[in-house]
Amino acid sequence: MTDQPDWTTQVHALVAAFEQELLLPPGKSRPFGGRRQGYRGASDDASGVQWHTWLFATGEAYCAVNLEGLAYDSWPIARFIERELDQPRLFDVRGRVTAPELVEVVWYRDAWQIVSRPPIDEKHIGLSPSPLSTMSPEPWRDTLREAYDCLDAGKRHRGRARQTVTLTKSRRQAEKEVSPHLQFRQQLTMGAGGGWADAVRTARANLQPLYDWVTEQASPLG
Predict the structure, then answer these.
(1) Residue 173 pairs with which residues in a beta bridge?
(2) Strand, helix or coil at 194?
(3) What is the spatial distance between Cα 187 and Cα 64, in angstroms, rounded to a whole number?
(4) pLDDT band at residue 2, thresholds of 50, 70 and 90?
(5) Closest by CA position to 52, among listed 71, 33, 69
(6) How buried is residue 183: exposed, middle or buried, by Cβ count under 10 Å (0-12/13-18/19+)?
(7) Each residue of 40-97: pLDDT tens digit?
């Protein structure tokens, strides 16, 4: 995967449109990815629920609501899972999403090696990725339970669990710390004039009810 100048230019244009849509000062988003990973993008760098955008070297671009399995303020992803298991709200919120067929529900299992996250075969949790429009209650509940198992039961699920995973590159099985990672993502299409602003704005508006709900379910106050 080569870092083509055209790809780099498009990443910069996408991130600039993202920063403008979120009213972030230019250059104040947090970059992620790179040539080795095959994608590059940025987040709003919020502590907890975040907005993300990125562009694969193959050309596919996305905007997403993102909640990683990190400590933040006492593991908001654990609060989110617990509240959804107790009283699921996804299907009520879906009714407020203008185009749910454009949104994918994605749960990742992140395996940790010091601070890096090596690729693993068990990356996807449950039926992830699934279109939001076709998700049903039982698969959602099963996926939540599997995601919850990626948190340490001995610490009231406020920490990473340890699981045996398959390292994709070496094909070797190893015990690693793991954590769950939630995304609601929507693919972007570049505008006729070559810009990303309209696509980012449209995707963000469609994803906003999901962002608000995830933020509420993950909140310390509930």
Answers:
(1) 166
(2) coil
(3) 9
(4) very low
(5) 33
(6) buried
(7) 999 999 999 999 999 999 999 999 999 999 999 999 999 999 999 999 999 999 999 9
Residue 99 DSSP one-character state:
-
Contact criterion met (CB below 8 Å) for 179 and 69 = yes
- pTM value is 0.94
- Measured distance CA(67)–CA(46) in Å, rounded: 10
Give burial (CB, 10 Å; 0-12/13-18/19+) of 159.
middle
At 63, list the tokens.
């905007």
Distance of alpha carbon 47 from alpha carbon 84, whole angstroms: 21
**Residue carrying the six token digits 């094909």:** 171
Joined together, the tokens standing for residue 144 give 């939540």
Cα–Cα distance, 157 to 134 (Å, whole number): 29
